[in-house]
Amino acid sequence: MEHHHRGQWGSNLGFLLATVGAAVGLGNIWAFPNKMGGNGGFAFLVIYLILAATIGFVIMLSELAIGRRVGRSVLLSYQSVCGRWGTFIGWLAMLSPFLILSFYTVLGGYCLQYMVLNFSELIGVSRISHLSGAQSFHDMLTNQPLSLLFTLLFIAACYLIIRGGIKEGIERFNKVGMPALFLMLVVVIIRSVTLPGAGQGLRFMFTPNFTPLRENFVGVLSAAGGQMFFSLSLAMGITVTYGSYLSKKESLVKNAVLVIVSDTLVAVMAGIAVLPAAFALGGAGAELSGPKLLFITLQDVFNAMGSLGPLFGILFYLLVSLAAITSAIALVEVLVTFFLDRAAVRGHYGNRGKIVGLVCLAVMVESALVALDGLGSNGLWIPFQGTGLSLSATWLDFMDFISEGVAMPLGALIMSILVGWVIGPKLIQEEVCAQGHRFQGGLYAFFSFCIRFVAPAGMLMILIGQLVTFFTPAG
Ligand code: PHE
After folding, report:
1. What's the pTM value of the predicted model, to 2 decimals?
2. CATH number of the domain within which 178 lies
3. Is residue 405 part of a domain?
4. Ligand 1 site: residues with CB under 6 angstroms?
């Protein structure tokens, strides 16, 4: 089946940068370093890598292969390969990106706001450095019009990029954005590790500590599994969609390995950039994860840096905005490709610009809820309010519960069972071997074993772990 009008990546590097861009996001910067430090340091990294190599690798490879084999949107691809169950996981893999966008865009908007605040400080217009990080953050969350405006700006940036198409839009942006992100990360690392007292942060992150492993091995395993799964953007339709635009010439195994290695590398680098500074200048009791790390602790760090602070502030929030935007465009593209391919199957030629505009508009509507809620600061009604469960703490938590908590792990669980037991790993092998690539012997045996046994068991464990988290009282 050829779909020439769909477009294709201009090069394997372009595909790779875009896929790494989709994987590298807020999760790498605000969750990984702290999870690593809190769950055994270097030992956690080893467990993370084992899970990534066994579960992450086989699910990513299957998604890439299914996408490229059918060459259509995630729904059509799963339907074509997996029949009726494919329809179910196809819809799940579109529901999740849509819901994740509701908060990803708001958080992206916050990053843009912080960039502007630091810029105003630099040119002497405003004085964020005169307020505590906690105060500035609270001021931003409760300023609803401004939050809406910056969310809109973030979505508008996504719109402008995706409108250009796969090669001229997404690939072109990532080809500049991802190397820039990497470079900025290196600059921030150099500043961070040369601060007096930085060693404490590095020790927190890297010291092997087997106590958490001994005391709560299952807890560490599910923390690492959940993080790996979210960080690699699995079960989101992203890898299927991006894979559907990849040439048969390219090696899927090599690409899957490179995406996983790069994503992990950036997560570890983000830790080296963030934690030493948070420990050196963030003050006692500084928050070390989530939005509070990003917008309170780190802004306190920039405030404490003196005259160079705002400059590093701009650089850092630009870096995080880039990480967020390259993920957000992947999420939007899943939906855009769905509408384009649906039109194509019906014999029309979909108008990309118009479809991107409509998807972005729909995203703006749901994002408005999350922006107005301001992480629960503005007294908005939230589903399951009053139950005290953590899924009802904020609109963000609620959207995250449906997507990351249920739809993603459930979709991946069913997908691994389908590939392992119903359609069989041979189909994936066939696609991986297109145009003479090798996928036989030990590597294929490893793949079959993991997709049949390790991935379903792991996904079930992650699904249960996520549900337990969301159903425990917020604290
Ligand atoms: N992988 C992204 C991160 O680590 C999160 C994400 C998940 C983005 C799913 C898009 C889709 O932040």
Report:
1. 0.95
2. 1.10.4160.10
3. yes
4. 23, 25-28, 100, 230-231, 233, 236, 327, 331
